[in-house]
Design a protein that fits this description.
The chain has 258 residues and is mainly α. It is 69% helix and 3% strand.
């Protein structure tokens, strides 16, 4: 067989594999990303507790019906997210939870859909209490006209939304626009990183909330006070919104989590 023919066959095999996800199903952009998603989900939901040694490449390859190279790349992805550490002659070991990169979009998504999602939501809420009231007060002082228009548009889109998807998207856009308007360079990349966390939280709160009109009015109060450049009132408006979110989360917890 000529070298050219061999290269063509190898390329064809790679192309076929890229169209197939874990377990032989049609996948997304890449096989290794699909495998990383499945393994990462299992780690975060507790199938493999910290300290566990994962199955080896050959076992994963058979489980997902993919090449060992795809598994190898998936493991590298999870190591980059600090979920795993690899040791020669030992294999891939699950890292302690405190080392996980919880600001990674994939890790956040796995966390948000795990059995411990109530803990996830409380964690996000605590983070919001630390960041959002003061960021909103800064936004009321520093926002530009263009930034104000972005905040107002997102708030209007929330009120006009006719689906969970559209309202959640607008809600997330509203809060991220406020973080950008705060004018602190560290909040901009932070906002991008926590976008996934906000999206999952707002989706839950919108679905489980019993009064969307009340929630909309709370958002409109935030928008109005930023627009009128009233930092103290804007800060307090955010705290009222956070308190309402706390109420919804608490009302929908299982008795064992209360």
């Amino acid at each position: 067989m000529s070298q050219t023919t061999s290269k063509r066959k190898a390329t064809a095999a790679q192309a076929a594999e890229s169209r197939t996800g874990a377990g032989g199903r049609a996948g997304g952009a890449s096989v290794h990303a699909s495998v990383a998603n499945e393994i990462g989900s299992r780690i975060v939901r507790g199938d493999y507790p910290p300290g566990s040694i994962l199955p080896n490449e050959a076992q994963w390859s058979q489980t997902f019906n993919v090449s060992r190279s795809a598994v190898r790349e998936a493991i590298k992805m999870l190591m980059a997210k600090s979920l795993l550490a690899s040791r020669p002659k030992v294999g891939s070991r699950v890292e302690p939870r405190e080392r996980w990169n919880l600001l990674d979009r994939d890790v956040l998504a796995w966390y948000a859909t795990s059995p411990g999602r109530e803990t996830f939501m409380r964690t996000v809420q605590e983070f919001r209490y630390i960041i959002e009231p003061e960021a909103t007060a800064f936004a009321a002082v520093r926002r530009s006209d263009e930034q104000m228009a972005e905040i107002s548009k997102a708030c209007q889109d929330m009120g006009a939304a006719t689906s969970l998807e559209a309202r959640t998207e607008a809600d997330t856009r509203f809060h991220l626009a406020i973080l950008r308007a705060a004018g602190n360079d560290l909040l901009v990349p932070l906002g991008v990183l926590i976008e996934s966390a906000f999206d999952h939280l707002f989706r839950y709160v919108t679905r489980e909330g019993d009064d969307l009109d009340h929630a909309q009015k709370l958002h409109e109060a935030i928008e109005r006070n930023i627009r009128l450049r009233r930092p103290d009132a804007a800060r307090n408006a955010v705290r009222r919104l956070l308190s309402n979110t706390d109420r919804i989360i608490g009302a929908n917890q299982a008795p064992s989590d209360a």
